[in-house]
Design brief:
Elements (H helix, E strand, L loop, with lengths): L11 H20 L6 H7 L12 E2 L4 E2 L22 H19 L9 E9 L5 E11 L4 E4 L5 E2 L5 H19 L1
Length: about 180
């Protein structure tokens, strides 16, 4: 006797994913796509922590502190001290989460000392760019990411040379994130 997809009981992950999609659709229907934020969806799903509109995470795995087996990245996270909200940071958080999930699925502990970096370029004119950069490491005493001393900085001035770097960085982050 063949078992069909209709006969299969959805996994907890499938049920959670379906619940998040239903919450998002309800929120979009009520408030419209443009007025709905990820924090609205996260709050409605019970993922936010500490009375905020952000999601607390275990920085070793990016797993939600409110719900096991849900991993939260980027702008939805309750940021670590001095951690920017940027596409590059979310990209690195995704890699941290993926590596941790792989380890956990194989019965191993995730990396106890993860390090992630951020670079963000901003065009301040049609030809000139500035940047901000930082490196963050896990602090086991405080259970959060902290800036590694001496690793953060900003452009000394806007420049066209930085624009060249920005376009190269953009091409790489887009390829890395979007394939």
């Amino acid at each position: 006797m063949a078992v069909t997809a209709q006969d299969a009981t959805p996994s907890k992950g499938d049920r959670t994913r379906q619940r998040l999609l239903e919450i998002a659709v309800k929120r979009f229907a009520a408030d419209g796509y443009r007025r709905t934020s990820v924090s609205d969806i996260a709050r409605d799903a019970g993922l936010t922590t500490g009375g905020t509109h952000w999601c607390g995470v275990d920085w070793l795995t990016m797993e939600s502190l409110a719900h096991k087996n849900i991993h939260v990245l980027g702008d939805a996270t309750l940021s670590a001290p001095a951690m920017p909200k940027s596409g590059h940071m979310a990209n690195n958080q995704g890699k941290l989460a993926a590596a941790a999930i792989i380890e956990l699925m194989n019965g191993r502990e995730p990396n106890p000392h993860p390090v992630i970096a951020n670079t963000c370029y901003s065009f301040v004119s049609d030809r000139e760019v500035i940047h901000v950069a930082s490196v963050h490491r896990f602090d086991p005493e405080h259970k959060t990411m902290v800036v590694v001393p001496g690793t953060s900085g900003v452009s000394p001035a806007r420049s066209e040379l930085e624009a060249t770097y920005a376009w190269g960085w953009a091409q790489n982050i887009w390829a890395d994130t979007l394939g």
